[in-house]
């Protein structure tokens, strides 16, 4: 018995005939294809004939720049180009135009080990508005690393999709996905960093403050993955970044040192939020206990006393300071209701810009 054929077929358009169907298929359109024998597959196409090429077990290597894993994987010019592209595509979508469809015929697999409203809706909606189709894979759909190894998930999804976005716990998972995937991988969040969020934040600052370079951004709270992403951005784009956090909750020291060694931005880590916010262009906050840390919530509320962003702290920052938060927020905990609802709060513009920044990231990743 002949061996099975694994591969793909290239069908030249001049050999396809479109015609109205016979009476049994009235009103439909049939695509008439030449007969293909699976027992003796033809060789490479010559003169318009069908070409069947067997696929190899390993996929061809992808350019490393296709992945979007860390902000500092890119230089300043590339980051700013993506932000400019985000603003352009945002303006196009806001105008009501629906003719720009660069993702038409493309699919994206979205892996969610951690659930998220903003990440899912912003990626799925953005990809759809630009012509693509996104597939949601929740925590129980894959159980990556448990039911199936990450490297196998990467290889399988690569053969179905044009891009993979993953929101996971361990940072090693996103690195492994990128290593074994033959299509671009976008970091939707890990416990270490959240680059898509910071791109949205940068876009929001450009829109409201007027610029990113030369500004003062003060983060008040836990030295978490958001802080790491701000530090990585500060190693590429020049601005003054301050993280005010309780002792013992500072950001990863290696990431702090990396940002300082870059010599691009002024980096400060302090335990005094009142002094830190003076002269800030942006005061930024996040939940004190992230997903996976909820059992520490009560303890953290005690330790983080004095680090709540309230009206008094915003007054110290000055009248020009905007408030930002990556959401979801625990109102009355890390930020007061009055601050979130104040005129200088831009948290919802920030949330909207997740979609626009990510559209630009996906366009860059796909080389479009």
From TrEMBL:
One Pfam family here: OTCace
Taking the first listed entry, what is the main subcellular location of this protein, grouped into a coarse class?
plastid
Q: Which biological process annotations from GO are given for this protein?
A: citrulline biosynthetic process; L-arginine biosynthetic process via ornithine
* EC assignment: 2.1.3.3
Write the record's keywords in alphabetical order, separated by commas. Answer: Amino-acid biosynthesis, Arginine biosynthesis, Chloroplast, Plastid, Transferase, Transit peptide
Q: GO CC annotations?
A: chloroplast
Q: Which InterPro entries match?
A: Asp/Orn_carbamoyltranf_P-bd, Asp/Orn_carbamoylTrfase, Asp/Orn_carbamoylTrfase_sf, Asp_carbamoyltransf_Asp/Orn-bd, Orn/put_carbamltrans, OTCase_ArgI
Aspartate/ornithine carbamoyltransferase Asp/Orn-binding domain sequence ranges: 213-364
Which superkingdom does the taxonomy of this entry point to?
A: Eukaryota
Q: Does the keyword Transmembrane apply?
A: no
Offer an example of a GO molecular function term for this protein: amino acid binding
**Catalytic EC class:** transferase
UniProt xrefs under SUPFAM superfamilies: Aspartate/ornithine carbamoyltransferase
- What residues does the Aspartate/ornithine carbamoyltransferase carbamoyl-P binding domain cover? 67-207
UniProt entry tagged with the keyword Endoplasmic reticulum: no
The catalysed reaction is: carbamoyl phosphate + L-ornithine = L-citrulline + phosphate + H(+)
Which NCBIfam families would you find in this protein's record?
orni_carb_tr (TIGR00658), PRK00779.1 (NF001986)
Which family, according to the similarity comment? Belongs to the aspartate/ornithine carbamoyltransferase superfamily. OTCase family.
PANTHER family per UniProt: ORNITHINE CARBAMOYLTRANSFERASE, MITOCHONDRIAL (PTHR45753), ORNITHINE TRANSCARBAMYLASE, MITOCHONDRIAL (PTHR45753:SF3)
Q: Could you identify this protein by its name? A: ornithine carbamoyltransferase
Per the UniProt record, the source organism is Linum tenue
């Amino acid at each position: 018995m002949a061996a099975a054929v694994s591969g793909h077929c290239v069908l030249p358009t001049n050999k396809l005939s479109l015609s109205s169907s016979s009476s049994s298929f009235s009103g439909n359109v049939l695509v008439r294809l030449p007969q293909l024998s699976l027992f003796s597959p033809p060789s490479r196409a010559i003169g318009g004939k069908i070409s069947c090429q067997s696929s190899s077990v390993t996929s061809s290597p992808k350019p490393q720049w296709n992945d979007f894993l860390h902000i500092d994987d890119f230089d300043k010019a590339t980051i700013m180009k993506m932000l400019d592209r985000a603003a352009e595509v945002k303006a196009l979508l806001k105008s009501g135009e629906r003719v720009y469809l660069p993702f038409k015929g493309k699919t994206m697999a979205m892996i969610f080990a951690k659930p998220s409203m903003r990440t899912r809706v912003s990626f799925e909606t953005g990809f759809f508005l630009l012509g693509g189709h996104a597939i949601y894979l929740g925590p129980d759909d894959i159980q990556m690393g448990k039911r199936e190894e990450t490297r196998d998930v990467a290889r399988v999804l690569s053969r179905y999709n044009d891009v993979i976005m993953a929101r996971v716990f361990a940072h090693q998972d996103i690195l492994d996905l990128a290593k074994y995937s033959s299509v671009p991988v976008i970091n939707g969040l890990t416990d270490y960093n959240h680059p898509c969020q910071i791109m949205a934040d940068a876009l929001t600052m450009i829109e409201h403050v007027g610029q990113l370079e030369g500004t003062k951004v003060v983060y008040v709270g836990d030295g978490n993955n958001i802080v790491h992403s701000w530090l990585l951005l500060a190693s590429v784009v020049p601005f003054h970044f301050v993280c005010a956090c309780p002792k013992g909750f500072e950001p990863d020291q290696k990431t702090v040192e990396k940002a300082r060694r870059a010599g691009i931005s002024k980096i400060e880590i302090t335990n005094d939020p009142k002094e830190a916010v003076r002269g800030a262009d942006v005061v930024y906050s996040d939940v004190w206990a992230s997903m996976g840390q909820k059992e520490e919530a009560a303890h953290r509320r005690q330790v983080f006393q004095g680090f709540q962003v309230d009206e008094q702290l915003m007054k110290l920052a000055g009248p020009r300071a905007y408030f930002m938060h990556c959401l979801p927020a625990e109102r009355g905990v890390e930020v007061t209701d009055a601050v979130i609802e104040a005129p200088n709060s831009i948290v919802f513009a920030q949330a909207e810009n997740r979609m626009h920044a990510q559209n630009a990231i996906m366009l860059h990743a796909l080389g479009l």
